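Here is one chain, start to finish.
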Amino acid sequence: MILYSRDAEADRAFFRDVLGYPHVDAGGGWLIFKAPPGELAVHPTDGEPAQEFYLMCDDLAATVAELTERGVEFTGPASDRGWGLITGIKLPGGGELGLYEPRHPLAHTLPD
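Its structure:
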C-alpha cells in the first residue's frame, strides 16, 4: 500500500509520532511502516472505480478520544453505517484516512 501526499514528510511524522506505528527507514527519511492486520472488501459502484483506506478499531469513541488528546483532527462526527461506526482522520498532507469500528464478522481473524 502506498499513500500519496502533498506533504509526505508531515504524514510520515504523523504515522510515526502520533499513531506510533513501528517503522524502518529505507534511506533518506523514507519511512516504511508496519501495517496492522488488514482486510479487503470489494464494493459495487455506478461511478468511477476508487480505493479507500480505513483503519479499524475495537472502540471508536475511545479511539477518537485518545487521538483527539494527541492533536488529531477528524473530518466529522462518527456515523452509524450499519456495518460499523465510521469517521475520518485528517492527515497533515491534506489526505483523509477512514477510521471505523466494525460490526461485521472479521476476516483478519481467519486462519491462514
